[in-house]
From TrEMBL:
Coiled coil: none annotated. Residues 23-139 form the HD domain. It comes from Lentibacillus populi. Gene3D superfamilies: Hypothetical protein af1432 (1.10.3210.10). It holds the Pfam family HD. The gene is yueE. CDD domains: HDc (cd00077). SUPFAM superfamilies: HD-domain/PDEase-like. This is Phosphohydrolase YueE.
Length: 177
């Protein structure tokens, strides 16, 4: 079975809709960080980059009087839960392997512990890599969600990751030129 590419996931209207909320630039940067961390921690870069790309698709917009309200967000946010479910549905729809879709969804579910009761989670390497990649791109005050990126640049960087992952597994990826 041909690998589902990051590009296929990235250009899907559902991904575009929800990344529009949480920030395309952040998603692309976290996917790149996840690729590097995956090498370091011997994690499958295909799963790590897919989870990283989709990790924030569960965000809701917590605006009050036109401004993002962090208190409202902290109290009510479940974006990791929603994102895991949304990403899983999308991945299955575009033909991702069921086991891979579950691994990716669980990594998204656990990329933050901000919605969980106090206490340390024992993360598996894939989950740790995705959480670490997210942290590596975080800016104070949630500014990483608002960073802009040109559409062409975003797609080029996604294609570059596909190329690196494809080469690594020795695959021929016909979609990438
Ligand atoms: Fe997040
Ligand atoms: Fe994030």
């Amino acid at each position: 079975m041909a690998r589902i590419t990051l590009e296929q996931i990235f250009i899907h209207p559902i991904t575009q809709k929800y990344l529009g909320r949480s920030g395309v630039a952040h998603a692309v940067a976290v996917a790149e960080h996840a690729y590097s961390f995956a090498q370091r921690y011997h994690v499958d870069p295909d799963l790590a980059t897919k989870a990283a790309l989709l990790h924030d698709v569960g965000h809701y917009t917590w605006y009050r009087d036109g401004e993002w309200d962090y208190e409202l967000y902290r109290e009510n946010d479940i974006h990791a839960i929603k994102g895991a479910s949304r990403a899983h549905k999308l991945l299955i729809r575009i033909g991702e392997d069921r086991h891979a879709a579950k691994e990716i969804a669980v990594a998204i579910l656990l990329h933050t512990d901000s919605y969980l009761p106090e206490g340390n989670l024992k993360l598996k390497p894939l989950q740790y890599v995705v959480a670490l990649a997210d942290e590596a791109d975080e800016e104070l005050g949630g500014k990483h969600h608002y960073r802009e990126i040109d559409d062409t640049e975003a797609l080029e960087r996604i294609r570059m990751l596909d190329l690196r992952i494809g080469n690594r597994s020795g695959e021929q990826n016909n979609q990438i030129i």
